[in-house]
Amino acid sequence: MTDRRDDVDAGRRQFVGWGVAMAGATLAPGVMLFDLAHGRAPEAPAPRGVRWGMLVDATRCAPDCNACIVACAKEHGLPDGKRSTDAQWIRKVELKDLRSGRALGAPVMCQHCAKPPCVDVCPTGASFKRADGIVLVDRHTCIGCRYCMLACPYQARSFVHEPVVNPQPDVPRGKGCVESCTLCVHRIDRDRAPACVEACAAAGHRALVFGDLNDPGSEIAKRVASYATAPLRPGLGLDPGVRYHGI
């Protein structure tokens, strides 16, 4: 008996083959496959609404602490990261000032850009941005082409190579799909902070601040307004929802 999952994987591979062959094809005068994909992506702007974001204070992030990484893996049922192919939604980057010798740690995850290139290149609309600024991947629509991984300038997306063995009810995952940090959207929609933020606070560092960037009264908006912060790779003009201080 043929496993239906094998049929699905075979169908995905066939679709990807067609997509690669037709990526540059003109479907109608002036209409490209890229244009159709971009048009399907739900990018409803919310200029007066909520813009969820995160502030990473590198001056408070302990170089030897990985509480955020452990919490993320536990929350989403991710592998332990021992293999190079393991999905990892947040990683720790160690920085060192060559002049002073000062070492800093900075977690890097999906930056939840206002202008996400991963959404632009997705041929099926699986990569999309919610009106509140959270960038997500619909695993039911993702065909595993990995165009979004190539387009992401932050190397923040992972491909699921192996069957999912520890599925969490609130976190849909699947072999053959691309995934990345969701800012713990399932928690946000229930008025809870992301798991990494809670873990960082429990570790006593409070290097991660989550909140509404559009709300002047929120802690994150006050901090962004009171001292210097910057996105990673600001020259790209992507307007990330994750800001950094002290790097």
Write a structural description.
The strands form five sheets. The protein has a three-stranded mixed β-sheet with strand order 10-3-11. A two-stranded antiparallel sheet has the order 1-2. The chain has a two-stranded antiparallel sheet with strand order 4-5. The chain is 27% helix and 18% strand. The N and C termini lie far apart (56 Å). It is of the alpha+beta class and 247 residues long.
Number of domains: 1
> CATH architecture, please?
2-Layer Sandwich
Gap from first CA to last CA = 56 Å
The poorly predicted ranges are 4-10, 13-47
Order of helices and strands: HEEHEHEEHEEHEEHHEHE
CATH class: Alpha Beta
Percent range for β-strand residues: 15-25%
Secondary structure: helix percent: 25-40%
CATH fold node name: Alpha-Beta Plaits
Rg (C-alpha, Å): 19 Å
Q: What is the tally of helical segments? A: 8
Q: Count the strands?
A: 11
Give the integer mean of the pLDDT values. Answer: 83
Q: Characterize the biggest β-sheet.
A: 3 strands, mixed
Strand order of the biggest β-sheet:
10-3-11
What's the shape?
Answer: globular
